[in-house]
Each structure stands twice: as C-alpha cells, then as structure tokens.
Design brief:
Length: 703
C-alpha cells in the first residue's frame, strides 16, 4: 500500500485517553460489531477465498466458528486489509501480545466467549513459560499478567469503564495517536466475528512460534507436537499431513507386524538383561563382604601386635621412672635434714639476741618514765599559773563587756527608728487600724435603704469626675456612689492634714484650737534645722543624723494618740460641716433619727482619719498615699476588687475609692487600693512595674 499506514502511528501519543474520550468515540462500536455479521448490505468483508472458516484451535479459534460463515464480499476493504497487515506487522513479542488483548476486548459475540477465555488461559501459560526461561524481565511479566487479568474482568459483564481504561493503557504502550487508535477500533467493529477470529489466530500463532522455538531449543517437553510442532498443531495443513502419515502406516500391515515382533523380542531381551544385572549386583555385594572380613582380620592382628609393643615399652618406662623417683626422694630427704639443722641453730641465736635486747629496752623505758614524771610536774605547775592569770583576764573582760553593753543599749535606743511590737505605732497594728477605719467609712457613706435619697444626676457627675466610665443601672449606681463618697471624704481629710502647718502660720497667735497646727508647724522647722546641723556641722557621732527622724516620729506618734482628741474642736467642727455639705449634694438623709447621728459620726470619722495620717507620718520610711489612675492595668498584689483571675488580663481599673498605702523603700504594703474594674478600653496603655506607679496615680502622693 502506498503512503503512510492509516492505522499504525509513527510517533508517541501526544495526548492521554480519558474514559470519557474513548467512551464517546466508541459509544456505538459494540452495537455495530454485534450487527456486522447479520447486516450484509452495509458490510465490507474479505474475499471468499480468504474468508473460508479456519479449523478450530486449542488456543484462540472458537469451536463453533464453522457454523457461522460471513457472507461473501465483492472486493476487499482497504482499511480491513491494512488492519490485517498491522496485526501481522512487527517482530516484538510484547506488541503481538497486546494486539491479541485488543481483539479479545473488542469481541462481543457470545459464541466467541469460550474460545477467548481458553485463549487467555493459554496465553497466560505461555507468558509464564517465557518468564520462566528469563526471556522477559519482571516488569514486562507483571505488565502482561495485569493485562490478562484486567481483560478477563472487563469481559465478565463487558464493563465499559474498565474496557476504556485497559484500551488507554494498551494504546499508550503502542504509542498510537488518538485518531489512529479510533480508526482501528472502528474498523474492528465493522468486521465480522469470523474475520476477528482469523486475526486472533494469526496474532496468536506469532506468539506460539516463539514458544515452539524455546521448547525445541531447551527440550522442555517430551513430544514433537509439544516442541517443534507446537505452533503447527492448530494449523490445518499440519493436521492433514499427520492424517496422511497415519494412513500410510495403516496400509502396510506386514511391516507393522514385523515391527511388533521386534518390539516383543526387545522386551524379552530387556527382561533377561535385567535379571543378569541383578545377579551381577548380588555377586558384587558378596565380594565386597568377603573383602571387608579379610580387612577386619588384618586390622585385628595389627592391633594385637601394637598393644603388646605398647605394654613392653610402658613397663620399661615405668622401671626407669621408679629408679629416678627413688633417687630424687633420697636427695630431698638429705636436703631437709640440712635445713632443719641450720634452722635450729638460727632459733637458738635469735633467742639469745632477744634476751639481750629486752634487758636494754626495759632500762630505757625506766629512764623515759623518770623524765616524763619530771616534765609532768613542771607542766602542771605552769598550768596552774596560767589558769590564775586567765581567771583575772575573764573578770576584766566581763567588766568591760558590761560597760560596753550599757553604752550600746543607750546608743541603740537613740538610733533605732523602728517601732517595737508593743507600741500602737508598729506597722502590724497600723494596718489593722486602717482596716477598721475602712469599715467605719463604709457604714458612714451608705446610700441604700429607705433612710436615704440620692440625686442620680449629681452622682453621675461625681463618678465622671473620678474617671468612671461604667454606665451603672439604678441598682448599681448606689454602690458606685457610696464608693465615690468614700474617696471624696478621704481626699478632704488628707488635704486638711497636709495643710495643718499653714493654719498656724495664718493664725499668727497661738490658740488651743490651733494646737495641732502649731505642733506640726514647729516640728517641720525643727526637723529642717536638725538636718542642717547634720550637713553644716562636723562630727563623727551617729546620734545627730538620726535626730530629725526621731523628732518626727515622736511628734507624730504623740499626735496619732491625742491629736484632736477633744470635744467641740474648732477645726474638726469646720471639717464636719464641709464634708456633710458636700455629701448632701449627692445623698439626702430623710430619716430624722439618722440626721441626729450624722454630726457625731462625721466627727469620729474625721478624727480617726487625721490620727491615722499622723501615725503614717510616724513611720520610717514614711508610706505614700497614692491613687491609681482610671484605665490602669490590674495589679492583683496592690489592688482589691471584683474580678476573675482568668479574665484579669482583659480588665482595667475604672476608678479607685480607697488609696494604696505603700513604702517605696522596701515596698511594704500597709493597705491595698480598693477599686472598681471594667473591660479594657481600646488603645489603653497599661504598665505593671512598681517603678512606674507614679505615672499610674492620679495626683501622685499627697505628702
């Protein structure tokens, strides 16, 4: 044929076959294949001379194919002829194998099913045989077995998806382009089942020819039919030849009879020869037995002679050893006697020497004992003398120590700035007094109950003043207002305490109502002047430096005990009026009995607050009273409030209603700040370091 083969591709597949592609191209091919043999009007077939039905084979041709003859064609279809040439083309066993699988996949005729199943079984056995003689590697073998298995599965129910997947793998292996593969499948579908059967037989014979060559070369089979005739046993010409040979043999009966007589004679001679061989073997066995007995007798005689010679040699050696042993024993005995004599002489000499040394040792011991007694007497005399001198020194040291203790006690009392536990100004007692004051202040600022009426607008303005951003409801606002009133009262008391010295300066002349102010005023100046004495005058004592602190402590301790402790004190009365006036803006007491008690309660609160302020000033170092700013980070070790530990990082301070009281020198906390909290506001900056506490406090220290 001229030009390029329309089916065989010359380059690798440029695009992969998907299931949908093959399915769409072959949607009607199987239906056409089933109807081809019965539709003579639309079918092109091979010529009648080449379309005669072949004999059935043991490998690929159906046993029923002789009963289904394709109708004659006017001429050979060129595509079908090209298809036959393609299946006969090539010399690669593996390509013949996959081409046969294509034909098996594309056969839908039920009458060919048994033939194809037998063909799959035979090809699988032949593949195993080729692999067994190592003519293909393991990868090739696995590829072939996998195709056989998938072909069997796809043909069970003619699964279209599995068939398409298998065809895609085959065309990929053959490196066929999509349009060429499509044309091949279409042409096979237009053929009759008899034509496809011939193609399977032709393709399979190429494989079987290789099997016949392997068997003939390696002699792996017993009969000619299974070796050089393997690929011909299914050939009709070879079968006719075999039948002709049988006919010739049947026509020559004389030769067959003679051949039978020769065979019988050969069999009789074979039996006789077998008997002679058995007798020969028996005689050889008897000869071997006699030879063995003769050899055994020779060995026994040799062993007996050998034993006698050994006994003779052993006796001679024993006699010689006995003589040598007796001579050696005699020599040892003489040597022992000589050593014993020398040892006895040495013992006698050693005893005489030991007696002499013993006498000399006893005399030397006696002289040492006398010398030791003399030294001991002198030593005891010196010891007694030293003990008397030590006793006198101890008495002098005790006297000096007592004198030094008196000086130290006097100096320690003067320089110690810490209050003892027995005083009312010690830090522990002061902390307890602050807690009591908190409870009293809470009772004084109550706003709940029928006895009180609050001004909500004024209350909210007060909360805004302290930076409160909470929006409390009608019930919560009373709690917030009570806290805000506490802070207002504390700020008023501490402000007046801080400015006491100014009142003395304004008064000019002394009056009893300004006694505390004058004491604070002159204490302030006295402390200042004693500090100047320390810095401006020379000296090495420790009293001068501690004097300003001691003066401040003693003055404020006295004020903490008796300051404002009198009825109708003018400054206290003024503060009572000021505080109650401020409170009435936010809280009105409607109960008349409560109103009568307000003045005395306010006076008590103010006096206690002022005295606590004096006690704080009596401490060394002086604690700081500090208010946290709104929005500050929650410091659980410095604050008291209502929050959950797991949510503390999400909260911030709303406003404080009782200050933090702490010493900056050693961070001793006298009282934690009491605060309200709120969720964090966006953009709020917070700090938790104590060194930056002043940045978080509103107004800093009041001192």
């Amino acid at each position: 044929m001229g030009g390029e083969d329309p089916i065989i591709g010359s380059k690798k597949v440029q695009e992969k076959f998907s299931n949908d592609d093959i399915d769409s191209l072959h949607k009607d091919l199987y239906a056409k294949a089933l109807s081809t043999s019965s539709s003579s009007s639309s079918q092109n077939s091979l010529s009648s001379s080449q379309n005669s039905t072949p004999l059935s084979t043991t490998s690929t041709l159906s046993s029923n194919s002789t009963s289904f003859l394709a109708p004659s064609q006017v001429k050979i279809d060129t595509l079908q002829w090209s298809t036959i040439e393609w299946f006969g083309h090539g010399d690669d066993w593996k390509n013949d194998f996959v081409r046969w699988i294509i034909l098996a996949l594309e056969e839908k005729e039920e009458k060919e099913s048994n033939s194809i199943e037998r063909g799959l079984t035979v090809i699988k056995r032949e593949t195993n045989e080729i692999f067994g003689v190592e003519m293909i590697d393991l990868d090739c073998y696995n590829f072939c077995i996998d195709l056989i298995t998938k072909c069997s599965i796809a043909r069970l129910d003619f699964d279209k998806k599995k068939r398409n997947e298998l065809l895609r793998d085959i065309f990929d292996h053959l490196q066929m382009e999509f349009d060429q593969a499509n044309l091949l499948i279409k042409t096979l579908g237009q053929m009759s089942s008899e034509q496809r059967s011939v193609l399977r037989f032709m393709t399979h014979q190429k494989i079987q020819a290789r099997i016949a060559f392997l068997r003939t070369t390696l002699k792996t089979q017993k009969t000619i039919d299974d070796m050089e005739g393997y690929h011909c046993t299914t050939n009709p010409y070879y079968k006719n030849l075999r039948e002709g040979i049988k006919a010739v043999k049947a026509s020559n009966t004389d030769l067959n009879k003679k051949y039978g007589d020769i065979v019988n004679l050969y069999n009789e001679l074979s039996v006789e020869n077998k008997k002679l061989l058995e007798k020969t073997k028996k005689l050889e066995a008897e000869n071997d037995q006699l030879s063995s007995q003769t050899e055994q007798i020779k060995q026994e005689s040799f062993v007996k002679e050998l034993i006698e010679n050994c006994a003779k040699i052993t006796q001679e050696r024993e006699n010689k050893l006995k003589l040598e042993h007796e001579a050696h024993i005699k020599e040892i005995q003489e040597r022992n006697d000589r050593i014993k004599s020398e040892h006895e002489a040495h013992i006698k000499e050693s005893k005489e020497s030991n007696d002499k040394i013993k006498l000399e040792y006893e005399a030397h011991i006696k002289r040492l004992q006398e010398h030791n007694d003399k030294i001991k007497s002198e030593y005891e005399e010196h010891i007694n003398q030293f003990q008397e001198e030590a006793e006198e020194l101890r008495k002098e040291a005790k006297s000096a120590q007592k004198e030094a203790s008196n000086y130290q006690a006097a100096l320690g009392s003067a320089t110690n700035v810490r209050w003892s536990d027995s005083t009312l100004n010690n830090p522990i007692q002061l902390t307890k007094d602050i807690e009591k004051f908190q409870h009293s202040l809470t009772d004084f600022t109550k706003v709940k109950g029928k006895s009180y009426k609050i001004n909500e607008n004024a209350a909210k303005q007060l909360l805004v003043k302290y930076g409160c951003k909470a929006n409390p409801n009608d019930r919560e606002i009373k709690n917030y207002l009570a806290a805000a009133l506490q802070r207002m009262i504390l700020e008023t008391i501490f402000h007046n305490a801080e400015n006491l010295y100014k009142y003395a300066n304004y008064a000019g002349t002394f009056t009893d109502g300004h006694l505390e102010s004058f004491i604070v005023y002159y204490n302030h100046h006295l402390v200042r002047y004693t500090n100047l004495l320390t810095t401006n005058r020379e000296g090495k004592d420790s009293i001068t430096a501690i004097t300003p602190i001691k003066i401040r402590q003693q003055v404020y301790a006295a004020l903490g005990s008796r300051g404002f402790a009198t009825s109708n004190h003018s400054q206290i009365k003024k503060l009572v009026s000021e505080i109650l006036g401020k409170m009435e803006k936010y809280r009105e007491v409607v109960d008349e009995e409560k109103k009568k008690e307000l003045n005395s309660e306010a006076e008590k609160i103010i006096r206690t607050g002022m005295q606590l302020w004096f006690c704080l000033k009596a401490q060394e170092p002086v604690p700081k009273i500090q208010w946290f700013k709104p929005g500050a980070r929650i410091e659980t070790h410095l604050m008291v409030g209502s929050w959950e530990n797991e949510n503390v990082k999400e909260m911030e301070l709303d406003f404080a209603f009782f200050p933090l009281i702490i010493t900056e020198h050693d961070n001793q906390v006298f009282n934690k700040a009491q605060v309200f909290v709120r969720p964090k506001q966006t953009g709020t900056k917070q700090t938790g370091r104590f060194q930056q506490l002043k940045k978080s406090f509103l107004g800093g220290s009041i001192f």
